[in-house]
Amino acid sequence: MFARYLMSAAPMANDIVDGGVYHGFMGGGWWRPASTQTYTNARIMEHTATLAWFYANERPWNSRSSGLYRNAELLSRLEAAIAYYTALQFPDGTYPEYEGRPSLAATTFGIVAQSDAYEALRKFGVSYESRLQLRQSIERAVIWFMNPESPHWAPPIRYFNQVLAGVVGAQRSLQVLTNPTTDQTHINERIEFLCAHGVAPAGFPHEPLGIDFGYNFTVALPDAAWLYTQTQHPSLVRLVKNYIDFTRFSVISEPGGGAMSHVPSLHSRNVVASLSRPPEDLSDRAALAKVFLDDVPGLATFFPTREEKVAARSAFATATQPIRALSKPDTSPRTWMYGRIAPDGPSQLERDEADRSLPALVSERFTKIGRGTVGDEYLFARRPFYYAVGAYGGYDGRNLSARQLGTLWSPRMGTVVVGTNDTELPEGWETVGPQQSFSTRKAATSVRYFAGRTSSDPVIDATRAELTTGLFAQRTESAAGRAQFVTGWGYWDRGVRFTFITEQSGECVQRIPLLLKPGDEITFSDGSSFAEGAGTAEFFASSFTLRRGSDRMLVSYGTSALRTVVRPSAATIAGGTIHRIGLIFEGQIDIHFAFLGGADISGVLAEAHGFSDGRVALRAILGQSVAELRIVGSGSPVSIDLRGGPADYRVIERTLASATAPSSLTLEAYDAGGARILRSSVSVRR
Predict the structure, then answer these.
(1) CA distance between the termini of the chain
(2) Residue 272 lies in domain
(3) Beta carbons of 389 and 249 less than 8 angstroms apart
(4) Contact 412, 255 (CB under 8 A)
(5) Same domain for 285 and 382
(6) How far is the C-alpha of 211 from the C-alpha of 243, rounded, in Å?
(7) pLDDT in tens, 626-656
(8) Inside any domain, residue 580
């Protein structure tokens, strides 16, 4: 854990400014992004804790004779840094970060760093002036932070990780100060308050009111673990359990033991993609959260195994290459603070069990709707042929998360549609309005649910929608009004349907972030094809099929051919590369996804769902040779002419009225000459 910090400590100390107006500033760019390296950013100074540790802790590799232990020159540099650091504090106890303004993060994370430095110096009774500066700074900062009237405590608490860091700092002050400015009762009360007001109903901690794996998992969970080891506060266990229960719904596992990934578009502050579980101690930044594994075994999915840790440490110990200093600016002092006391983690068997128990793998039918604090909703719809995850509802327009569909996955094909939350590689499910007047991916909407296939069916609330394991529909309307746009989703067993409508005139673009893996091929309705690895191409089509191995997925988008552009992206995830499919249309578009497996669709693939009021919703996927479809078994026979008119020639949906609640429907398909080419029965699911 400490080897690369040891290689960095002396250069870090030598980079402290010696003399002049900035005497004591920790230069060199060791900590915090390059764009924030200003003389008034107090966060840069948190490595005072790192230098203090090397001064105060003797090890065979950090001795008085050959290391930094009790090194007088190091102490002199450290004293200068502490003087500079504490001089940045404002009279109210806060510290600056960006542009010299008071910062909650700089103050709360600073309390912890300063407490560690204070404890190290007190160990030997050295540097009285530095200890006084640190003690007074900690006292002022804790008083400011623990004041319930301070803005950071106003519900809903926006930045959970920053406030939690302050509670950790307050707890740490009890350990290092002779006369602390708070007490355990007050800290326990603030833990309870934070867990009640800093977490969304869905279970994720606010960052800033949205989800973010980087801050939720990598930053907040280790702090929660340390605080739990000191307080045993039960709310911290409940916090972690609720968060992990929620976030496991957004982990996607490729078939056959392939890559694991997040649903990127859910996350608001840090770019995420594939799930990373690095065994190297310096990269295993959330390691202390393993404290919760006994109570929350699902955590194992996110960590390296004990066996992997042993192998990584053994490889490091036997390596012949020189040990390198840390890579600037990613040198967090929290990594060594927590990594040295972290459990080794789950066994391979324990993690395998956690991986196998991911919600999308253990059930083929569920609907989960996670509710945010500001009208945001997170929909997870698992059906036998797919898993769809998306974010809808409230959106503040500033963070990295996106709205509408985030990921579409098949248990046989793996991930087929996935967006990013990377502003450098902005791919995602998105409808762009005329003259780029709006984007559904970055727009707030209202959300409603319906018992049926469209918004013409009876409205149901989210609680009832969550109880639905068959067909239901979802409608979102722009916060700017339905004249801007309305979208609709229908969640069938074999696939989903998307509808977009705008009253604005002009060309719109529907973007589909299709994931292609090596060997994948797209075949368009005009017979042309596009293989993974090819460059940008343009087609004129009304549908295409994606072939992956022996399985296929149909994407059908109209009775008339549309200009269709395929543009490879640099974004990679889940073993594939995102390709942006652009469909150019006006006014309205209906897109049907249907997972075909290895089935032949020269005939009909159909499903039917019945409702308590007698309605039966039918979806049929048809081969191109079908010119007429007749439906028998629900009232009077229905005939659908597929040679023209509004019906999609590959996928049709109908709602049929019935007074008899049929258990099945009979479908008859006819060719253009009137000859019957298929007769089959489809069960009605209720």
Answers:
(1) 57
(2) 199-361
(3) yes
(4) yes
(5) no
(6) 10
(7) 889 999 887 778 998 888 654 555 799 999 9
(8) yes
